[in-house]
Design a protein that fits this description.
- The chain has 304 residues and is of the alpha+beta class.
- It folds into two domains: 226 residues, Thrombin, subunit H; 49 residues.
- Helix content is 36%, strand content 23%.
- It has eight helices and 13 strands.
- Strand 2 and strand 3 form a beta hairpin.
Length: 304
Protein backbone atom coordinates (compact mmCIF):
# COMPACT_ATOMS: atom_id res chain seq x y z
CA UNK A 1 0.00 0.00 0.00
CA UNK A 2 2.86 2.37 0.92
CA UNK A 3 4.51 1.71 -2.45
CA UNK A 4 1.30 2.64 -4.26
CA UNK A 5 0.98 5.90 -2.28
CA UNK A 6 4.62 6.78 -3.01
CA UNK A 7 4.14 6.09 -6.72
CA UNK A 8 1.04 8.31 -6.78
CA UNK A 9 2.95 11.15 -5.06
CA UNK A 10 5.84 10.78 -7.51
CA UNK A 11 3.41 10.84 -10.43
CA UNK A 12 1.79 14.06 -9.14
CA UNK A 13 5.17 15.71 -8.56
CA UNK A 14 6.36 14.65 -12.01
CA UNK A 15 3.22 16.11 -13.57
CA UNK A 16 3.76 19.40 -11.70
CA UNK A 17 7.40 19.58 -12.76
CA UNK A 18 6.47 18.81 -16.36
CA UNK A 19 3.72 21.43 -16.27
CA UNK A 20 6.16 24.01 -14.93
CA UNK A 21 8.61 23.12 -17.68
CA UNK A 22 5.88 23.54 -20.27
CA UNK A 23 5.00 26.97 -18.85
CA UNK A 24 8.61 28.10 -19.05
CA UNK A 25 8.90 26.68 -22.56
CA UNK A 26 5.94 28.74 -23.80
CA UNK A 27 7.16 31.78 -21.83
CA UNK A 28 10.54 31.73 -23.56
CA UNK A 29 8.99 30.90 -26.93
CA UNK A 30 7.02 34.15 -26.62
CA UNK A 31 10.31 36.00 -26.05
CA UNK A 32 11.75 34.35 -29.17
CA UNK A 33 8.88 35.83 -31.16
CA UNK A 34 8.82 39.31 -29.58
CA UNK A 35 12.50 40.23 -28.99
CA UNK A 36 14.31 41.26 -32.17
CA UNK A 37 17.86 41.70 -33.36
CA UNK A 38 18.44 45.03 -35.13
CA UNK A 39 20.68 45.79 -38.12
CA UNK A 40 21.77 48.90 -40.01
CA UNK A 41 23.77 48.81 -43.24
CA UNK A 42 24.13 45.04 -42.90
CA UNK A 43 25.66 45.11 -39.41
CA UNK A 44 24.01 44.19 -36.07
CA UNK A 45 23.53 47.25 -33.85
CA UNK A 46 21.64 45.89 -30.84
CA UNK A 47 18.35 44.52 -29.58
CA UNK A 48 14.73 45.64 -29.47
CA UNK A 49 11.31 44.30 -28.51
CA UNK A 50 7.77 44.38 -29.83
CA UNK A 51 4.93 46.11 -27.96
CA UNK A 52 1.20 46.48 -28.65
CA UNK A 53 0.21 47.13 -32.29
CA UNK A 54 3.64 45.80 -33.34
CA UNK A 55 5.74 48.86 -32.62
CA UNK A 56 9.39 48.13 -31.80
CA UNK A 57 11.18 49.72 -28.83
CA UNK A 58 14.95 50.15 -28.62
CA UNK A 59 17.63 52.58 -27.40
CA UNK A 60 17.89 56.06 -28.90
CA UNK A 61 21.69 55.88 -29.01
CA UNK A 62 21.58 52.87 -31.38
CA UNK A 63 19.90 54.94 -34.11
CA UNK A 64 20.99 58.44 -33.09
CA UNK A 65 22.93 59.04 -36.31
CA UNK A 66 19.79 58.33 -38.36
CA UNK A 67 17.64 60.63 -36.21
CA UNK A 68 20.14 63.50 -36.26
CA UNK A 69 20.55 63.25 -40.04
CA UNK A 70 16.79 63.19 -40.63
CA UNK A 71 16.31 66.09 -38.23
CA UNK A 72 18.90 68.10 -40.15
CA UNK A 73 17.40 66.98 -43.50
CA UNK A 74 20.60 65.21 -44.51
CA UNK A 75 20.73 62.19 -46.80
CA UNK A 76 21.13 58.89 -44.96
CA UNK A 77 20.11 55.27 -45.29
CA UNK A 78 17.35 55.31 -42.66
CA UNK A 79 16.20 51.70 -43.00
CA UNK A 80 16.72 49.58 -39.91
CA UNK A 81 16.23 45.85 -40.29
CA UNK A 82 14.97 43.45 -37.64
CA UNK A 83 14.72 39.71 -37.19
CA UNK A 84 12.92 37.87 -34.38
CA UNK A 85 15.11 35.17 -32.86
CA UNK A 86 13.14 32.39 -34.57
CA UNK A 87 14.11 33.83 -37.97
CA UNK A 88 17.80 34.53 -37.29
CA UNK A 89 18.85 31.14 -38.64
CA UNK A 90 17.93 32.56 -42.07
CA UNK A 91 20.46 35.37 -41.74
CA UNK A 92 22.74 36.11 -44.65
CA UNK A 93 25.29 38.84 -45.23
CA UNK A 94 22.70 41.14 -46.78
CA UNK A 95 19.30 42.44 -45.71
CA UNK A 96 17.14 40.47 -48.15
CA UNK A 97 16.15 37.93 -45.47
CA UNK A 98 15.45 40.63 -42.88
CA UNK A 99 12.49 42.91 -42.31
CA UNK A 100 12.55 46.73 -42.64
CA UNK A 101 11.54 49.23 -39.96
CA UNK A 102 11.86 52.99 -39.58
CA UNK A 103 12.12 55.48 -36.72
CA UNK A 104 8.78 57.23 -36.17
CA UNK A 105 8.86 60.69 -37.77
CA UNK A 106 7.86 62.22 -34.40
CA UNK A 107 11.47 61.91 -33.29
CA UNK A 108 12.83 64.32 -35.90
CA UNK A 109 9.75 66.52 -36.35
CA UNK A 110 8.74 67.16 -32.74
CA UNK A 111 11.28 68.74 -30.35
CA UNK A 112 9.59 67.43 -27.20
CA UNK A 113 9.55 63.83 -28.42
CA UNK A 114 13.07 64.13 -29.85
CA UNK A 115 14.50 65.39 -26.54
CA UNK A 116 12.45 62.97 -24.46
CA UNK A 117 13.84 60.09 -26.52
CA UNK A 118 17.38 61.41 -26.39
CA UNK A 119 17.54 61.95 -22.62
CA UNK A 120 15.64 58.77 -21.70
CA UNK A 121 17.53 56.85 -24.43
CA UNK A 122 14.35 55.43 -25.93
CA UNK A 123 13.01 55.35 -29.46
CA UNK A 124 10.08 53.71 -31.28
CA UNK A 125 10.32 52.00 -34.67
CA UNK A 126 7.57 50.80 -37.01
CA UNK A 127 7.65 48.26 -39.79
CA UNK A 128 5.60 49.06 -42.90
CA UNK A 129 4.35 45.47 -43.14
CA UNK A 130 4.87 43.94 -39.64
CA UNK A 131 6.42 40.91 -41.33
CA UNK A 132 7.25 38.08 -38.90
CA UNK A 133 5.84 40.05 -35.97
CA UNK A 134 3.35 37.70 -34.35
CA UNK A 135 3.67 38.42 -30.63
CA UNK A 136 4.29 41.36 -28.30
CA UNK A 137 5.26 42.00 -24.68
CA UNK A 138 2.93 43.86 -22.29
CA UNK A 139 4.27 46.94 -20.51
CA UNK A 140 3.99 46.99 -16.74
CA UNK A 141 1.81 49.74 -15.30
CA UNK A 142 3.55 49.34 -11.95
CA UNK A 143 7.13 50.08 -10.96
CA UNK A 144 9.58 47.47 -9.69
CA UNK A 145 11.13 47.26 -6.23
CA UNK A 146 14.62 46.46 -5.01
CA UNK A 147 14.98 42.70 -4.71
CA UNK A 148 12.48 41.90 -7.48
CA UNK A 149 13.46 38.95 -9.70
CA UNK A 150 13.84 39.94 -13.35
CA UNK A 151 15.11 38.50 -16.62
CA UNK A 152 16.77 40.32 -19.51
CA UNK A 153 16.54 39.20 -23.14
CA UNK A 154 18.63 40.28 -26.11
CA UNK A 155 21.53 39.53 -28.42
CA UNK A 156 24.79 40.21 -26.53
CA UNK A 157 27.90 40.10 -28.71
CA UNK A 158 25.56 39.87 -31.75
CA UNK A 159 24.87 36.19 -31.04
CA UNK A 160 22.58 34.54 -33.56
CA UNK A 161 20.03 33.28 -31.05
CA UNK A 162 18.28 35.08 -28.22
CA UNK A 163 20.05 35.08 -24.85
CA UNK A 164 18.00 35.14 -21.66
CA UNK A 165 19.59 35.77 -18.27
CA UNK A 166 18.21 36.32 -14.79
CA UNK A 167 19.00 38.76 -12.01
CA UNK A 168 17.49 40.90 -9.30
CA UNK A 169 16.88 44.63 -9.09
CA UNK A 170 19.80 45.70 -6.92
CA UNK A 171 19.27 49.44 -6.89
CA UNK A 172 17.58 52.37 -8.59
CA UNK A 173 18.95 55.85 -9.13
CA UNK A 174 18.60 59.04 -11.14
CA UNK A 175 21.00 60.04 -13.91
CA UNK A 176 22.44 63.53 -14.48
CA UNK A 177 20.16 66.54 -14.87
CA UNK A 178 19.09 67.37 -18.40
CA UNK A 179 20.45 70.71 -19.74
CA UNK A 180 18.55 73.78 -18.54
CA UNK A 181 17.55 74.73 -22.08
CA UNK A 182 15.89 71.31 -22.48
CA UNK A 183 14.18 71.09 -19.09
CA UNK A 184 11.21 73.18 -20.23
CA UNK A 185 10.56 70.84 -23.20
CA UNK A 186 10.28 67.49 -21.41
CA UNK A 187 8.43 66.40 -18.26
CA UNK A 188 11.42 65.04 -16.31
CA UNK A 189 14.58 66.60 -14.91
CA UNK A 190 16.70 63.45 -14.56
CA UNK A 191 16.34 60.01 -16.18
CA UNK A 192 15.33 57.16 -13.85
CA UNK A 193 17.44 54.00 -13.97
CA UNK A 194 17.57 50.57 -12.36
CA UNK A 195 20.59 48.38 -11.64
CA UNK A 196 20.74 44.59 -11.85
CA UNK A 197 23.17 41.68 -12.24
CA UNK A 198 21.94 39.96 -15.43
CA UNK A 199 24.33 39.33 -18.34
CA UNK A 200 25.23 42.54 -20.13
CA UNK A 201 27.49 42.96 -23.15
CA UNK A 202 27.57 45.00 -26.39
CA UNK A 203 24.47 44.00 -28.36
CA UNK A 204 22.26 43.69 -25.27
CA UNK A 205 21.26 47.36 -25.44
CA UNK A 206 17.60 47.91 -26.27
CA UNK A 207 16.40 44.55 -24.99
CA UNK A 208 13.59 44.20 -22.44
CA UNK A 209 13.92 43.73 -18.69
CA UNK A 210 10.97 41.61 -17.60
CA UNK A 211 9.41 40.91 -14.23
CA UNK A 212 7.99 37.39 -14.27
CA UNK A 213 4.39 36.94 -13.18
CA UNK A 214 2.72 33.89 -11.66
CA UNK A 215 1.87 32.80 -15.20
CA UNK A 216 3.40 33.61 -18.57
CA UNK A 217 0.42 35.88 -19.33
CA UNK A 218 1.36 38.10 -16.38
CA UNK A 219 4.99 38.70 -17.40
CA UNK A 220 5.56 42.39 -18.10
CA UNK A 221 8.30 44.83 -19.05
CA UNK A 222 9.73 46.91 -16.20
CA UNK A 223 12.78 48.31 -17.99
CA UNK A 224 14.89 48.61 -21.12
CA UNK A 225 18.56 47.54 -21.10
CA UNK A 226 20.71 50.65 -21.40
CA UNK A 227 24.26 49.38 -20.92
CA UNK A 228 26.89 49.09 -18.19
CA UNK A 229 27.98 51.64 -15.67
CA UNK A 230 31.69 52.13 -16.38
CA UNK A 231 31.76 55.31 -14.30
CA UNK A 232 31.78 53.05 -11.24
CA UNK A 233 35.49 52.42 -11.89
CA UNK A 234 36.21 55.98 -10.74
CA UNK A 235 34.61 55.17 -7.38
CA UNK A 236 36.57 51.91 -7.21
CA UNK A 237 39.85 53.75 -7.85
CA UNK A 238 39.15 56.25 -5.08
CA UNK A 239 38.35 53.51 -2.57
CA UNK A 240 41.35 51.47 -3.70
CA UNK A 241 43.69 54.41 -3.01
CA UNK A 242 42.07 54.89 0.41
CA UNK A 243 42.71 51.28 1.51
CA UNK A 244 46.17 51.20 -0.08
CA UNK A 245 47.16 54.26 1.97
CA UNK A 246 45.79 52.62 5.12
CA UNK A 247 47.92 49.52 4.50
CA UNK A 248 50.99 51.62 3.69
CA UNK A 249 50.44 53.56 6.89
CA UNK A 250 50.60 50.33 8.90
CA UNK A 251 53.91 49.38 7.25
CA UNK A 252 55.47 52.85 7.52
CA UNK A 253 54.85 52.96 11.26
CA UNK A 254 56.61 49.59 11.56
CA UNK A 255 53.41 48.12 12.85
CA UNK A 256 53.71 44.46 11.91
CA UNK A 257 50.97 43.47 9.51
CA UNK A 258 49.05 40.56 11.00
CA UNK A 259 46.35 38.88 8.93
CA UNK A 260 44.88 37.43 12.13
CA UNK A 261 44.05 40.90 13.43
CA UNK A 262 40.44 41.69 12.40
CA UNK A 263 41.21 45.31 11.43
CA UNK A 264 44.25 44.28 9.33
CA UNK A 265 42.37 41.41 7.67
CA UNK A 266 39.41 43.66 6.81
CA UNK A 267 41.66 46.27 5.19
CA UNK A 268 43.52 43.62 3.18
CA UNK A 269 40.34 41.84 2.01
CA UNK A 270 38.72 45.08 0.84
CA UNK A 271 41.91 46.08 -0.98
CA UNK A 272 42.07 42.71 -2.79
CA UNK A 273 38.36 42.81 -3.76
CA UNK A 274 38.53 46.39 -5.07
CA UNK A 275 41.75 45.73 -6.98
CA UNK A 276 40.16 42.66 -8.62
CA UNK A 277 37.11 44.71 -9.62
CA UNK A 278 39.29 47.42 -11.14
CA UNK A 279 41.41 44.97 -13.13
CA UNK A 280 38.36 43.10 -14.43
CA UNK A 281 36.77 46.33 -15.71
CA UNK A 282 33.48 45.12 -14.22
CA UNK A 283 30.31 46.69 -15.58
CA UNK A 284 27.09 46.80 -13.63
CA UNK A 285 24.05 46.36 -15.93
CA UNK A 286 21.85 49.46 -16.04
CA UNK A 287 18.32 49.70 -17.44
CA UNK A 288 15.91 52.56 -18.07
CA UNK A 289 12.79 52.51 -15.89
CA UNK A 290 9.65 51.55 -17.83
CA UNK A 291 8.02 54.73 -16.48
CA UNK A 292 9.85 56.61 -19.23
CA UNK A 293 8.51 54.28 -21.93
CA UNK A 294 4.94 54.75 -20.72
CA UNK A 295 5.36 58.53 -20.68
CA UNK A 296 6.96 58.57 -24.14
CA UNK A 297 4.12 56.48 -25.60
CA UNK A 298 1.61 58.87 -24.02
CA UNK A 299 3.39 61.85 -25.64
CA UNK A 300 3.27 60.17 -29.05
CA UNK A 301 -0.31 58.98 -28.53
CA UNK A 302 0.30 55.22 -28.77
CA UNK A 303 -1.62 52.57 -26.86
CA UNK A 304 0.09 50.15 -24.53
Amino acid sequence: MKKIVILIILAILSEQLFSQSETDRFRFLKLDMSVVKLFHKGKPIGSGFVIKNFYIVTNFHLVEQIIESKKNKEEINDTIYYNPSLHNELESQDDRTRNPAFVLSNFFENDTIYNYGKYSDLVILKSPNNKNLTSYLPISRKNYFRGDDVIAAGFPLALQNLTISSGIVGNEFFGPFVPKEISSLIPFARPWYGQSDFINAPGSSGGPVIKLGNTKDKDSIVGIVWGGRKALNQDISSLLIFYEEKLNDIVSKKDTFNIDLPEHRELFEKYIILNSLKLSNTQIPIFTNVYHLRELLDLIGLEY
